[in-house]
Amino acid sequence: MRVTMWEFAVDVDERLLGCPTDSLRTQLAEYERGERREFDVDVRFPDSFTGDVMRVMASIPYGETRTYGEVAAELDSHAVAVGQACGRNPVPLVVPCHRVVGADSLGGFSAAAGVELKRALLDHERGAVQTGLDAF
């Protein structure tokens, strides 16, 4: 399924999500408007290293980031391998790979929109947290 977030197109593999497509689109629109910080969606994580990385990404709170190295340390792996797994994330936005950054840069982003969307997502979340906006 293709969704648009701030005029950036993002492909989300809804086959890995236990949620009707209409509900997912509604939740994504609420997130974009600042009305939602978490998604009410069951994610079927792949039984692989990518799935392990996705589980860690899913645990990173709204408005926070972790470095590739921090995620790698948690999984007893390497930062490059974590970056590659982030790039394979089939459900960006729902599993927030945008919250994993380089030690001294934003790093990449799995969605075709790339780093520009990653920056917009992080700015959106940080702005809501810093201004005290509460989506709940």
From TrEMBL:
Residues 49-126 form the Methylated-DNA-[protein]-cysteine S-methyltransferase DNA binding domain. Keywords: DNA damage, DNA repair, Methyltransferase, Transferase. It catalyses: a 6-O-methyl-2'-deoxyguanosine in DNA + L-cysteinyl-[protein] = S-methyl-L-cysteinyl-[protein] + a 2'-deoxyguanosine in DNA; a 4-O-methyl-thymidine in DNA + L-cysteinyl-[protein] = a thymidine in DNA + S-methyl-L-cysteinyl-[protein]. It holds the Pfam family DNA_binding_1. PROSITE patterns: MGMT (PS00374). The keyword Transferase applies. It is an enzyme of class 2 (transferase). Its EC number is 2.1.1.63. The keyword DNA damage applies. Signal peptide: none annotated. InterPro entries: MethylDNA_cys_MeTrfase_AS, MethylDNA_cys_MeTrfase_DNA-bd, MethylDNA_cys_MeTrfase_DNAb, WH-like_DNA-bd_sf. One of its GO terms (molecular function) is methylated-DNA-[protein]-cysteine S-methyltransferase activity. GO terms for biological process: DNA repair; methylation. It comes from the Archaea. This is Methylated-DNA--protein-cysteine methyltransferase. It comes from Haloferax gibbonsii. The gene is ogt2.
